[in-house]
Request: fold
Amino acid sequence: MVSSVFVVGNWKMNGSVLLAGDFSTELRRIQPELATEVQIALCVPDTLLVSFDLDKKIRIGAQNLSEFDAGAYTGEVSANLLTEQGCHLVIVGHSERRQLFSESSEQVAKKAAQALRNGLTPIVCIGETGEQREEGKTFAVIGEQLLAVQQELGEAGMASIWLAYEPVWAIGTGKTASPEQAQEVHAWLRDQLGSVGTELPILYGGSVKAGNAAELFQQRDIDGGLIGGASLDINEFEGICRAADTLIKRKG
Ligand code: PGA
Reply:
């Protein structure tokens, strides 16, 4: 059983040095009040990685990395350059990368492997589009995305990643998957993961807010959230962290 609840912000191409400062102040105030099992992280634009002043229990992450070590790859950022900036986590395979920047499942798997080789925890995102769900292809689509990563990393590597189920139709749309819809997919994923499944955090992403976090996080196989829009608003983000805290303290 995964005993923590993970609250991970994804700022995407948003934020500023000023906002990083405000978040640092507020998170320093909030975090000591929360159970240690509430694991907070913020995945931010690369230029903001060093703009935070946080307790070291809060992890800072990036949103993408190159699958290559170094070299003539103009505009890319290597795993090594990220770790040098104190980065601990990196999102790979976000649906915006897959759709807008044509990243294939094989490339996503290579990026996850590159992250692991360099001591970064990859948060591997998978998810179906609305059309694919309507056509009954949800499990085929996410199964293919997951398999590419499993083949590249093997069982040992899989034990060190975090997974995020992010239905594309729920991202930035305000249309959250119902707790039951999300739980169904998470349980299926846990099953596909075999023996590593019990220990691997599976986060849900797609319009998570302070108002719906509790009902999502209390599902058996949902270990927390990857939060886009609501992670840019400190009050919303605090509300999500507190929902996770209430849940942990209730379980006691
Ligand atoms: P959202 O984004 O919370 O704004 O829907 C989630 C994500 O893209 O990770």
